[in-house]
Amino acid sequence: MFNNNFLWGGAIAANQCEGAYLEDGKGLSIQDIMPNGIVGAISEEPIEDNLKLVGIDFYHKYKEDIKLFADMGFKVLRFSIAWSRIFPKGDELEPNEKGLEFYENVIDECLKYGIEPLITLSHYETPLHLAKVYDGWRDRRLIEFFENYCRVVFERYRGKVKYWLTFNEINSVLHFPLMGAGILTPKDKLTKQDLYQAAHHELVASALAVKLAHEIMPNAKVGCMVLGVVNYPMTPNPDDMITSMERDRDLMFFTDIHVRGKYPSYTKKLFKDLGISIKMEDGDEEILRNTVDFISFSYYMSKCTAKDINKYEKGRGNLTSGVKNPYLKESEWGWQIDPQGLRYICNYFYDRYQKPLFVVENGLGAMDKLVEVNGEKIVLDDYRIEYLNDHLVELGKAIEDGVEVMGYTSWGCIDLVSASTAELKKRYGFIYVDRNDDGTGSLERYKKKSFYWYKEVIKSNGENLK
Question: In the UniProt entry, which residues are flagged as the active site (predicted)?
Fold first, then answer.
């Protein structure tokens, strides 16, 4: 089912785990003024209530944490570079050496244990200066700044890092422009033209990163990364089917350009209907032809779609939501649990593109309770084991269907601060971190029951899945 080269591992993001938000020359990022994640107002300056300012202190505890990942048997660790650690404002010409040294140390620590680094270049972490001065990716000049950042890190880490991702969940720019593109202008003040133009700038920057990576590191593999959501029509009514097709295109717009190297034909009608005219500069179309080596995506849930969504109960989700599916259970945060949706989306992507896939986020956020069993502190998270087991079984079925899957990195392999709600009580990890929403806690790490389960999954190469 899973081949011998399958990359088992976990995923984290700089802004959710590192802390040390101003240490060693780091500049502020948009996350430092988002104390409530995507659900609340931004602050003028960083405030103590923002749990991300400390995170889980991965900045100082990375050696301890990577050793724990190695104990589980990780083959790969997905993590992100905070752009503002390398270029504190984002638009400087010269990088911050201390920032480069930190990530080099993280990379070397991974390699010491035989763990392949999988690095995300931009994970919801636009430097705050770029947001304030340029309104983020609305301004085309960010392409040049991002290209400079990419060149610096590619040249520094070439020979050590084989796998790269450009923008985390790049399709989120249309739904959450601050998180996805560093745009400080409120969404209700933005037009569809504004959003798609910002998306164009990111897509050009992503293609430039692919081009640079292939020039500087010929053996590197670069992927796009999208928020993967399966859209089921609520009924067999053809209106609902067409709506589902249109919602699929909201996602496939980004993968089509990344994989095929050009704007898809359906955008002609879409842009005409929305009154959009993408402003391209000479050379943009040529740049976009630098296509990715693989497609990576997050998958947490599916949703139902309908032409008239007001007729149905609305579901809840991470960054997108639709009509509630009556056939599915929900997590504590109302995310609908659909393991078969993972098999479906893998087949959908592979049928469409015939490109290797990498599942780089999947997991269950839950309010874990630390208990003592036989003198050991542990979390008995059988619910997480069930969730992950069921999804991995379906991923195995997708592979049996003929889909080429490179690997799987469970999201939040160690507890960290939630991106959507900026909470710590919403835990995903195999490792419990003693820190609470009020900022208290020792930051001690404890292995959960799922730690030992996932270790056996990796050791058996998935043979122990039920």
Answer: 361
- Kind and range of the H or E run holding 336: strand 336-337
Tell the residue number behind the tokens 């009514």, with chain if given.
237
Q: Give the CATH number for residue 169.
A: 3.20.20.80
H/E run at residue 9: strand 7-11
Domain contains 331: yes
- What is d(CA 95, CA 455) in angstroms, rounded to the nearest whole number? 38
Residue 274 in this model has a pLDDT that exceeds 70? yes
Cα–Cα distances (Å) from 9 to 71, 75, 79, 159, 407, in that order, read 11, 6, 11, 21, 8
* Helix, strand, coil percent content, the chain, rounded in steps of 5: 40, 20, 40
172-228 confidence digits (pLDDT tens):
999 999 999 999 999 999 999 999 999 999 999 999 999 999 999 999 999 999 999
Is 361 annotated as catalytic? yes
Identity of the residue numbered 166: T
Q: What is the pTM of this model?
A: 0.97
Number of structural domains the chain divides into = 1
Catalytically annotated residue among 109, 361, 394, 423: 361
pLDDT score of 38: 84
2 assigned to some structural domain: no
Distance, in Å, from the CA atom of 221 to the CA atom of 293, rounded to the nearest integer, reads 6
At residue 303, what are phi and psi to the nearest 5 degrees?
-150, 165
Q: Is residue 16 part of a domain?
A: yes
Share of the chain above pLDDT 90, in %: 92
Indicate the SS3 state at residue 222. strand
pLDDT at site 319: 54
> For residue range 391-446, what is the model confidence (pLDDT) as tens digits?
999 999 999 999 999 999 999 999 999 998 899 999 999 999 999 999 999 999 99
Using alpha carbons, select from 217, 11, 16, 227 the residue that is nearest to residue 117.
11
**Three-point CA angle 48, 15, 332, nearest 5°:** 85
What is the per-residue DSSP string for 108-136?
Answer: HHHHHTTPEEEEEEESS--BHHHHHHH-G
Report which of 462, 304, 317 is spatially closest to residue 390, judged by C-alpha positions: 462
pLDDT tier at 321, thresholds 50, 70, 90: low
Q: How far apart are CA 416 and CA 422, in angstroms?
A: 9
CB 264 within 8 A of CB 252: yes
| Residue span of the structural domain in which 439 resides | 7-459
Own/partner pairs, 146-149, CB within 8 angstroms, 24+ separation: 146/83, 146/121, 146/122, 146/205, 146/208, 146/209, 147/205, 147/208, 147/209, 147/212, 148/87, 148/93, 149/83, 149/86, 149/87, 149/90, 149/95, 149/121
Is 296 in contact with 225 (CB distance < 8 Å)? yes
464 within domain boundaries: no
